[in-house]
Amino acid sequence: MYESGEMYLETILLLKKRIGKVRSIDIARELEFSKPSVSRAVSILKDDGFIEIDAEGFIELTHGGKDKAEKIYERHEQLTAFLSDLIGVSKEAAEADACKIEHIISDETFSAIKKYYKEHKK
What we know:
mainly alpha
């Protein structure tokens, strides 16, 4: 899966937690993307089996989609905490950098960062 697909899944997960039912327009507003761009991405996620869309246009994560979204969100949260709490990066920069790193970091490196953070957090 590409970084953009992961970003959409994470956004759907967070919107679902915040507002309940999610539609493409909610994603477009949240990410400040055009409706056609979101429509294309949603179509790809649906074709790949990560989401389902009901007759009213509400988006639900499938089991696989939810697992993937939660994995990405965990990486985002852990990397943000590691960068800001342990090495002193500002919250704003840590958030922005974590958003980029979460999509390319290996499982091995992420596991090591999680372990290190757990052992050294203040």
